[in-house]
Amino acid sequence: MPNADVPSDDVTLGPESAALLERRERLPGGASRLSYERPFRPVRGQGCILYDAAGNGHLDACNSVASVGHCHPRVVGALARQAGAPDTHTGDLGGEVVDYAERLLTTLPAAIDRAVFTCTGSEANDLAVRIARHATGGTGVVVTETACHGTTADVAAFSPSLGPGVPLGADVRTVPAPVGGDADAFAAAVRAAFADLARNGVRPAAFICDTIFASDGVCADPPGFLAAAVDAAREAGAVFIADEVQAGLGRTGAGMWGFSRHRVVPDLVTAGKSMGNGHPVAALFGRHGPVDAFGQSARDFDTFGGNPVSCAVGLAVLGVIEDEGLIENAKTTSERLRLDLAELAGEHAAIGEIRGAGLFIGIDIVGEAGADAAGAARIVNGLREKRVLIGATGPKANVLKIRPPLVFGPREADFLIEMLDDVLSRH
């Protein structure tokens, strides 16, 4: 499983960390995975740096949840202030949720004019599919082969990356990831998937994809390739759900939302993770027609989705992204980082294709036999020993995942390149 390690027997941990690891393995059990062979235990953070108990700083080049940097004072201050005021459930009339909804909707196409808040991206995707099924009268869902859209029962049924122990729904079809960005081939696969559903008596409901295709190994280019697949889904009678949990909030450096790179306007949009910089807040956005029709026929109430504290945090995050120019930073830092990675590729045969947009970059690690998952794991864990944190992803677990907070700048990029070069030289 990408980005999920079991601590090696030969890894030495301090007594406090070892005791904590034993408790963790005993309480959550095997379903709770760790990211590195030698587990990392952060105790504080600032910007792109996480510190362990000994005070050692680690460059965080993987944590998109802390989108505007760890412990940003503006976000922490907003949380603390609102927590000192009434924090009621969403059945009360509060101005914070209205302010937040209005602010978010200004970043979306005009056709998308409804905002509904949840606590997690899984919940947002669950709600999106319920709305899609209500709007179309169908149940069929098409996703990519290693997509990850969440962990509720319905959403897990169309999240193949969860593994063979989580069976796909009978009304779910998968298509190959758009590696290489072949628009015609991807559209043809989506068209064929909906046709297969129809042959089996399943009416279409939704085509949903993460617009950076993170779990599929990062498929970003060329901009616009997604549009033909969206057209194919709509021709079949399905709605298009853009899952922006990974690509949203300025991550791609080309605007606030990943789908904008593809010049499409979704029917429904979901977001989460980085909306709260670590605080649990997520949302569904959509066109008023399907959202209102669903709301009139089905009671939907999320006790904490859109609570005042979450909305205050979310508003602060949006303010930081705008005032600190973080979308432009994602663009310019990415350009520099991609050039340096291309130079490294010329020096290290293990580096294959480099893909991505903004501060979401995937690097294929290859060997003589092709995709090299073991090699990718060695690099990820080698960088962890150099106090640089990245991850791995992709259907073959061989894609290095660089996805830092949006405050990641040239100095951090230079250090990442230096350490990656050193680890690859020992690879």
From TrEMBL:
<dbReference type="GO" id="GO:0008483">
    <property type="term" value="F:transaminase activity"/>
</dbReference>
<dbReference type="InterPro" id="IPR015422">
    <property type="entry name" value="PyrdxlP-dep_Trfase_small"/>
</dbReference>
<comment type="similarity">
    <text>Belongs to the class-III pyridoxal-phosphate-dependent aminotransferase family.</text>
</comment>
<keyword id="KW-0663">Pyridoxal phosphate</keyword>
<dbReference type="InterPro" id="IPR015421">
    <property type="entry name" value="PyrdxlP-dep_Trfase_major"/>
</dbReference>
<keyword id="KW-0808">Transferase</keyword>
<keyword id="KW-0032">Aminotransferase</keyword>
<dbReference type="InterPro" id="IPR005814">
    <property type="entry name" value="Aminotrans_3"/>
</dbReference>
<dbReference type="GO" id="GO:0030170">
    <property type="term" value="F:pyridoxal phosphate binding"/>
</dbReference>
<dbReference type="Pfam" id="PF00202">
    <property type="entry name" value="Aminotran_3"/>
</dbReference>
<dbReference type="InterPro" id="IPR015424">
    <property type="entry name" value="PyrdxlP-dep_Trfase"/>
</dbReference>
<protein>
    <submittedName>
        <fullName>Aspartate aminotransferase family protein</fullName>
    </submittedName>
</protein>
<dbReference type="InterPro" id="IPR049704">
    <property type="entry name" value="Aminotrans_3_PPA_site"/>
</dbReference>
